[in-house]
Design brief:
Shape of chain B: globular
Number of strands of chain A: 0
Structural class of chain A: mainly alpha
CATH class of one domain in chain A: Mainly Alpha
Oligomer: heterodimer
Distance between the termini of chain A: 40 Å
Number of helices of chain B: 11
Largest sheet of chain A: none
Number of helices of chain A: 13
Largest interface: A-B, 90 and 88 residues
Radius of gyration of chain B: 24 Å
CATH architecture of chain B: Orthogonal Bundle
Order of helices and strands of chain B: HHHHHHHHHHH
Strand content of chain B: under 5%
Distance between the termini of chain B: 35 Å
CATH topology of one domain in chain A: MetI-like fold
Shape of chain A: globular
CATH class of chain B: Mainly Alpha
Number of domains of chain B: 1
């Protein structure tokens, strides 16, 4: 009885998994076909595995450069968010006072504001100071990403005993040293969560870069993909090859850090 | 550390500066601009509530608001049903549990823009060719009507977000005391009874979290909307976020768009505050 149930569930799960993967399958197999082949048949495997579409897409997307841009912006932004949010959360959790409570509340309340509500003045103001560039973009990511990160760090810091701070201070360490040598290493699990949540968000973000980055050659993957797709709307074979290329880095990241990613995302949502 | 220490302010300075310049100042400026005739270049004059009066007569805006609401309600229900079902499946007696989780969760990591393009291909090309083979007329012309655009968005979002919601339900299901389930099984409770009287009450908090998460994500949707339907045909699948964007950057009506953005903020904030309220009430009960 129990075993039979097992197999039914297993088969059901397997079928659902195939259904879930079907979009990726369709994208992948059609990216190797010619325009005519896609017109005739979108389901079966390609007659031959032809990489021509990929060569064109690779060049048109300026792939290595676009990939580098995405990596640069994501890594720098995430490192800054981690460093500055952890420091801020530390200050707010260690100096208990009305002021700290108010500031913490302001950071949390800022999470309520949807991007579209600040988008127009943000772009105008930064435009006036000629900050619509990658530096400005990274600074904006710090502003938008700080709230959730501070919230997560603050929660974790409340579970770190203050006697650690005191012991280190007595041994002659200053604030900076106490934080970086004693406290920050203890926060590693939450740092992983903060990093993952911000990496996923910033890597995939389209709207903000589309408003801020306007020099050719500094586009991120989603931004470049949007222009590329616009140019090749009726040429699905090229568009699909481009989409496959765009997804590959994410899939690699997922394979490497699968456990941390699922844990990070669920912690971020539940807290 | 005390609030009058220099170190306190040095630790806080970078994020305070960024939050102020990126979120707080634009938000306050935005509220101010929404009462003017600002067009991005000239500050414009003070027009009082005119923009707000106009937007409640603006059919395109009201249509987008209605479309977004319908979309959010349907998505929230579907995503939660699918997400919970997947969670029950992978926490049940299956050996491929880990592999299944990995698979169902995968779409979440990929950007909405890219997923929208992939599904555009599926709805337009694959649906059409499958429809031809099995002779189903209804699979032709997807995304070219308001209804197919609506369901296209719902399918895309359910496929993408169900795995995310699954992960949240799993966190609660796995935190459930196993002895409780085993004891009830020995006592002869049926699968349905176990779900109804033990599992359901214990995962109830997960419902609140998941409901509001999907609700606010659906309501704020932009990328998928842009890449899947682009708002078409004839702006009929345009959601609020996109409508605001187009008012601002296509029609250059900055102040007017900003008034819509303020209304958008109020709605999103209300959703979030209701969630906080519901959570607080739950805590008291427990």
């Amino acid at each position: 009885m129990r075993k039979k149930w097992d197999i039914k569930l297993e088969v059901l799960g397997g079928l659902l998994a195939l259904l879930w993967l079907a979009p990726f399958y369709l994208m992948f197999v059609n990216s190797f076909k010619s325009k005519k082949e896609i017109f005739m048949d979108t389901i079966s495997l390609p007659a031959e595995w032809n990489f021509d579409n990929y060569i064109t897409a690779f060049e048109e997307l300026d792939f290595m450069r676009t990939l580098f841009n995405s990596l640069l912006i994501t890594i720098v932004s995430v490192v800054l968010i981690i460093v500055f949010s952890a420091m801020a959360a530390y200050a707010l959790s260690r100096a208990k006072s009305k002021l700290s409570t108010v500031l913490f509340f302001v950071f949390v309340a800022a999470m309520l504001i949807p991007f579209q509500s600040v988008m127009i003045p943000l772009v105008t103001v930064f435009g006036q100071f000629e900050m619509l560039n990658r530096g400005g973009l990274i600074f904006m990511y710090l502003g938008f990403g700080a709230s959730l990160s501070i919230f997560l760090y603050h929660g974790a810091l409340n579970n770190v005993s203050r006697s650690l701070d005191e012991a280190a201070t007595i041994d002659g360490a200053n604030r900076w040293q106490v934080f970086w040598y004693i406290i920050f290493p203890i926060l590693k699990p939450i740092t992983v969560t903060v990093a993952i949540l911000n990496i996923i968000w910033i890597w995939n973000d389209y709207l903000l870069p589309s408003l801020v980055i306007n020099t050719p050659g500094s586009e991120t993957i989603p931004l470049k993909m949007f222009f590329f797709f616009g140019e090749y709307t009726k040429q699905w074979h090229l568009a699909l090859a481009g989409l496959t290329l765009a997804i590959i880095p994410v899939i690699i990241f997922y394979f490497i850090a699968q456990r941390e990613i699922i844990k990070g995302v669920s912690d971020g949502a539940v807290k | 550390m005390r609030t009058k220490d220099l170190s306190y302010w040095l630790f806080l300075a970078p994020v305070l500066l960024a939050l102020t310049l990126v979120v707080i100042v634009p938000m306050l400026l935005g509220v101010y601009y929404s009462f003017t005739s600002w067009n991005g270049i000239v500050t414009g004059e003070f027009v009082g509530l005119q923009n707000y009066i106009d937007l409640f007569k603006d059919e395109r805006f009201l249509d987008s608001l209605w479309f977004t609401t319908k979309f959010s309600i349907v998505s929230v229900i579907l995503i939660n049903i699918i997400g919970l079902s997947l969670a029950l499946l992978v926490t049940g007696r299956v050996r491929s549990s880990k592999l299944l989780r990995t698979t169902f969760f995968m779409p979440n990591l990929i950007g909405g823009l890219i997923l929208g393009f992939i599904w555009q291909f599926i709805f337009i090309k694959v649906f059409a060719s499958v429809g031809e083979i099995i002779g189903m007329e209804s699979l032709q012309g997807w995304l070219s009507t308001t209804d197919t655009g609506f369901w296209g968005l719902v399918i895309l979002m359910s496929w993408q977000m169900a795995g995310y919601i699954m992960v949240i339900y799993i966190a609660y299901l796995e935190g459930m005391p196993k002895e409780l389930l085993e004891a009830s099984e020995i006592d002869g409770a049926s699968t349905f009874q176990r779900f109804r009287y033990i599992v359901f009450p214990l995962v109830a908090p997960a419902f609140t979290v998941s409901m509001f998460l999907t609700l606010s994500n659906s309501f704020k949707l932009y990328d998928q909307n842009l890449s899947l339907t682009g708002g078409g045909p004839y702006n009929s699948t345009e959601m609020v976020a996109m409508e605001i964007f187009k008012t601002a950057f296509t029609q250059n009506a900055f102040a007017y768009a900003q008034a819509k953005a303020v209304i958008f903020f109020v709605i999103v904030a209300i959703i979030a505050l209701v969630q906080v309220y519901v959570n607080k009430r739950k805590e008291v009960e427990m």
